[in-house]
Amino acid sequence: xxxxxxxxxxxxxxxxxxxxxxxxxxxxxxxxxxxxxxxxxxxxxxxxxxxxxxxxxxxxxxxxxxxxxxxxxxxxxxxxxxxxxxxxxxxxxxxxxxxxxxxxxxxxxxxxxxxxxxxxxxxxxxxxxxxxxxxxxxxxxxxxxxxxxxxxxxxxxxxxxxxxxxxxxxxxxxxxxxxxxxxxxxxxxxxxxxxxxxxxxxxxxxxxxxxxxxxxxxxxxxxxxxxxxxxxxxxxxxxxxxxxxxxxxxxxxxxxxxxxxxxxxxxxxxxxxxxxxxxxxxxxxxxxxxxxxxxxxxxxxxxxxxxxxxxxxxxxxxxxxxxxxxxxxxxxxxxxxxxxxxxxxxxxxxxxxxxxxxxxxxxxxxxxxxxxxxxxxxxxxxxxxxxxxxxxxxxxxxxxxxxxxxxxxxxxxxxxxxxxxxxxxxxxxxxx
Length: 432
Description:
Blueprint: E1 2-3, E2 16-28, E3 32-38, E4 43-49, H1 50-53, H2 55-62, E5 69-78, E6 86-97, H3 111-116, H4 118-121, H5 125-147, E7 151-152, E8 158-159, E9 171-174, E10 177-181, H6 186-196, E11 198-206, E12 219-228, H7 232-253, H8 255-261, H9 265-270, E13 278-280, H10 281-289, H11 304-312, E14 318-321, E15 344-349, E16 354-361, H12 366-375, H13 384-388, E17 397-403, H14 404-412
Parallel strand pairs: 1-2, 4-6, 7-11, 13-14
Antiparallel strand pairs: 2-3, 2-5, 3-4, 5-6, 8-10, 9-10, 11-12, 12-17, 14-15, 15-16, 16-17
Organism: Enterococcus aquimarinus
Pfam family, one: tRNA_anti-codon
Keywords: Aminoacyl-tRNA synthetase, ATP-binding, Cytoplasm, Ligase, Nucleotide-binding, Protein biosynthesis
């Protein structure tokens, strides 16, 4: 007898199989019990008929508690009434691990309670669906970049300097010297791009921002590509193709998860249509001022309400181009005809989800980068290796970073980024 997973039920119609599962819920009448089963791949229903299995098996079924683990034996059948399409007619039940007084019941629970029980909350159908979409976005990311001959490079998590400035770093002792948890792998990826042409990384990054918004995590995962011989204009094409590819992959491969979350597929379909609209920072300020945002003046960074209004004006992801030099990092290339802006872009997601990508063309002039490092008050010696990239065969190069959890939150249509991380780290939470 073959042991299968629920997701493969369609391959075994009419066969007697075994499935290891947990009891998510159950209901029973005098002669029949319905078990809602999950095994990590999907959910489906198991049916226990008293007259078919006998008193002993039926009593086991009736007495099962939520999250008890079981080994089920039975026949796979089609079930046209369910979205999943299949069920199992149970013939035998072996209890593996009992579960009593499971703390998360079908009733409503407060957010803090659920976060305190995140290790158990992950088992729920909604959290399962979100993690399935996260997994698909990761899978699709590797496929997208591998198909385009990018080489995956793993930058260090412990660094001796800061790519984005020193205000939100986690500092640690490194054998008597100061070290920091990485904010970004970008500087190292620039070095790798000079060796391999096109590279990308995917790994954890850390920002010690004391922010409690629904968009911020202390620890999050970043997809960071870097491309040699690539202008910003060419990079923008890669960015929009990548995001559209992610959305399409979720539409193609996460049908059940989207149903669980109630995500409108027609809305997601719009996000696969290219090219995405673009607006300059200058015009974005004008757009905001003309629509009641009098608090925004040229030179300000945009806040959540501003980004939401801009993106909703287009109903698609939108690029905001060429921000003021004063509010962007030292490594961005200066604009060829203006002193006050740099060649960069943020991609803002619609529906109020904010920035999901930040990118730029990188400055290649040695003296300009050195001057900017000094302007930022950074230690020149710590960046000497980075300056070397401008001395030995520099080329035009561009790159960007996509925050995984923000992308998951947006594509899933959920409200808070904390649900997009298996075990989120927030300003007030490092448990569990």
